[in-house]
């Protein structure tokens, strides 16, 4: 089995800098190179040993600005590296704000059996007590773990699956949760305490994904937007989006996939006009329990940002 661990840098707070070590919010994300983030990490027969690492700076951005171009590049580079026998795993440094989207995109597209581990930080690298170095060490520990696999997210000592993980806090260091699914594992003193199976053993999402990866760079991404069911949701936004040519709509629903009757009526009209519709619950825990008489299809277990990715991939797959 390969021993190399590839580290792909994309920016984020983990690579951010601020004018003062006490500043945890007024910093600029994506300033330091990924090689700088590795410098000074203790290496002693673990995943951080320099001769095991291949480092590549793929992008340098605040992840709120993540876009399809970087995603395509990322998917291609991850797939390339994973195909090499000497590569054991890929680690990706990423901002926390859209980390769950990138993780889910890579999961849904690649379903890798080798580990792809995304990590991040809530404090900039210049903070008095930055969290990035420990998160990086923990991510390397996961990457180097025999038996690890699939796309996971490591933050504040916990390892989450790409389908379940969600940023749930804007400030604290343990900003992620997997809801009632819980973490896959904890990293303690560089060792994994595993609680449940790795994500590559879970659902098969998209058949023919290798073919889609091959033509991803030349494929136009479909226009898929998210609308929300809320008090007074009357379908106005749906009609405007259909008029503007939207191809897919994710509806962020109340509770167990329920939709305001006026919004549902507009969505049914949109569906009849050829727009793909998918429900995802606004609840941060649990999953939609589908009923036999549901008028609109659901993406059980996915939040609306991930359901949007699932729908975009489905539309690209069938185009
Ligand atoms: C970002 O998402 O790039 C900035 C915020 C963060 O990483 O915590």
Name the CATH superfamily classification of the largest domain: L-asparaginase, N-terminal domain
Distance between the first and last residues' Cα: 37 Å
**Going across the major beta sheet, what is the strand order?**
2-1-3-4-5-6-9-10
Percent helix, as a range, is 25-40%
Small molecules bound: succinic acid
Assign the CATH topology of the largest domain. Rossmann fold
Strand content: 15-25%
Q: Domains counted in the coordinates: how many?
A: 2
Tell me what the structure shows:
The mean pLDDT is 94. Helices cover 27% and strands 21% of the residues. The two termini are 37 Å apart. Strands 2-1-3-4-5-6-9-10 form an eight-stranded mixed β-sheet, with helices on both faces. Strands 11-12-13 form a three-stranded parallel β-sheet, sandwiched between helices. Helix 4 links the parallel strand 4 and strand 5. The protein is α/β, with parallel strands linked by helices. The protein folds into two domains: 191 residues, 3-Layer(aba) Sandwich (Rossmann fold); 98 residues, Rossmann fold, CATH 3.40.50.40. The site of succinic acid has 12 residues, from loops.
């Amino acid at each position: 089995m390969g021993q190399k661990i590839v580290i792909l840098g994309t920016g984020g707070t983990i690579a951010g800098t601020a004018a003062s070590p006490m500043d945890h919010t007024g910093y600029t994300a994506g300033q330091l190179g990924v090689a700088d983030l590795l410098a000074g990490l203790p290496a002693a027969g673990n995943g951080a040993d320099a001769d095991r690492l291949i480092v590549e700076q793929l992008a340098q951005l605040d992840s709120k600005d993540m876009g399809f171009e970087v995603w395509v590049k990322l998917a291609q580079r991850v797939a390339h590296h994973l195909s090499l026998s000497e590569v054991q795993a890929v680690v990706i440094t990423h901002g926390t704000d859209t980390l769950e989207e990138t993780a889910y995109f890579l999961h849904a597209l690649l379903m890798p059996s080798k580990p792809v581990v995304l990590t991040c930080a809530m404090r900039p690298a210049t903070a008095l007590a930055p969290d990035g170095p420990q998160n990086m060490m923990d991510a390397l520990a996961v990457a180097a773990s025999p038996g690890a696999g699939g796309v996971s997210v490591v933050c504040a000592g916990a390892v989450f699956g790409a389908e379940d993980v969600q940023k749930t806090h804007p400030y604290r260091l343990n900003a992620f949760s997997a809801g009632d699914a819980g973490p896959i594992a904890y990293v303690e003193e560089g060792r994994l305490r595993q609680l449940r199976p790795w994500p590559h053993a879970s659902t098969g999402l998209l058949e023919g994904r290798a073919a889609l990866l091959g033509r991803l760079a030349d494929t136009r991404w479909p226009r898929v937007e998210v609308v929300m069911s809320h008090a007074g949701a009357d379908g106005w936004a749906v009609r405007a989006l259909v008029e503007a040519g939207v191809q897919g709509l994710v509806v962020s629903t109340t509770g167990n996939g329920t939709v305001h009757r006026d919004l549902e009526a507009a969505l049914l009209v949109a569906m009849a006009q050829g727009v793909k519709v998918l429900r995802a619950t606004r609840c941060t825990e649990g999953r939609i329990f589908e009923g036999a008489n549901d008028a609109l299809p659901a993406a059980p277990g996915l939040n609306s940002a991930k359901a949007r990715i699932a729908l975009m991939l489905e539309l690209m797959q069938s185009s």
